[in-house]
Amino acid sequence: MAEENGLSQVFEITGKDFGRAGTISTKIKEILQEIGIDSAVIRRAAIAAYEAEMNIVMYAQRGTLTLTLTPTAIRLDVDDEGPGIEDIELAMQEGFSTATDEMREMGFGAGMGLPNIRKNSDEFAISSTPGKGTSIDVVLNLNQVAE
Amino acid sequence: MKLKDVVDKLELKVLTCEDKVGAEVSGGYTSDLLSDVMANSKEGNLWITLQTHQNIVAVAKLKDLSGIVLVNERQPDVDTVQKATAEGVLLLQTSEPAFVISGKLYQLLGA
Questions:
Q1: Structural domain that includes position A137
Q2: Burial class of residue A85, CB neighbours in 10 A (0-12, 13-18, 19+)
Q3: Which of B56, B58, B64 is closest to B93 using CA atoms?
Q4: Which of A16, A23, A43, B58 has the highest CB neighbour count under 10 A?
Q5: Domains held by chain A: number
Q6: d(CA B5, CA B25)
């Protein structure tokens, strides 16, 4: 799927599938490395992609992560079908989590996922409809990298 | 310091990917929270943890960590070993608890 001045690829993520969790963000990192994106930008994109992927795995039924590359930016657009978020401001606070005890025992649910995504983005937008799902749009600029 | 020297001096048991011990260790990070490791570990760090499930492999791979040290002689899950082998992630094991092995690594690297 080609967009104007860019390439776009859609990845499907299945909820509750902890066995495959992390494979999409690993794949995205590999794609960015193959293209030769600056490693500092790749590291930030990998963190954002991983946290977004894990949020779908932990909370949603299913979702997609769309990677779009343009000459000036990396876009990650994440859309899920899931419970949604009642209070986005609260969910964005570091340390707030709705993870189950089982997830916490595995080391998830630190309440750092959404804050980590925002910290590693140049542009960050989140919207959610309770009972339907959540969308996160992330942009990482490439033109700030001196190369 | 080379990973191989760290493995020898701290008497770590190599569980997967022994060919990776030529890598350089940049430091260490001790945590059992995956998002914390994603946020705060640095490239080349040895990650000291008690988590043994397969999701630790993706974290190490995404953050370019030099390896994962499982503490208290904890055994990784079978699928963790399989995934680490497939992804080229070095899994190590120690009989020491996290505090002790972190202290020893800190001392060794002269941080």
A1: 6-141
A2: buried
A3: B56
A4: B58
A5: 1
A6: 10
Summarize pLDDT for A6-19 with one digit per residue, the tens: 789 999 999 999 99
Task: Verify whether the Cβ–Cβ distance A116 to B35 is below 8 Å.
Answer: yes
In a domain, A62, yes or no: yes
ipTM computed for the complex = 0.93
Residue of A25, A47, A107 with shortest CB distance to B32: A107
Chain B residue numbers touching A106 (CB-CB < 8 A): 34, 51, 53, 55
Chain A residue nearest residue B57, CA to CA: A22
- pLDDT per residue as tens digits for the range B30-72: 999 999 999 999 999 999 999 999 999 999 999 999 999 999 9
Tokens in use for A114?
């959404």
Kind and range of the H or E run holding A63: strand A62-69
| Chain B, nearest residue to A47 by Cα | B38
Q: Which domains does chain B have, with CATH numbers?
A: 3-109 (3.40.1390.20)
Which CATH number fits the domain that encloses residue A66?
3.30.565.10
Q: Is residue A147 part of a domain?
A: no
Task: Provide the pLDDT for residue B110.
Answer: 84
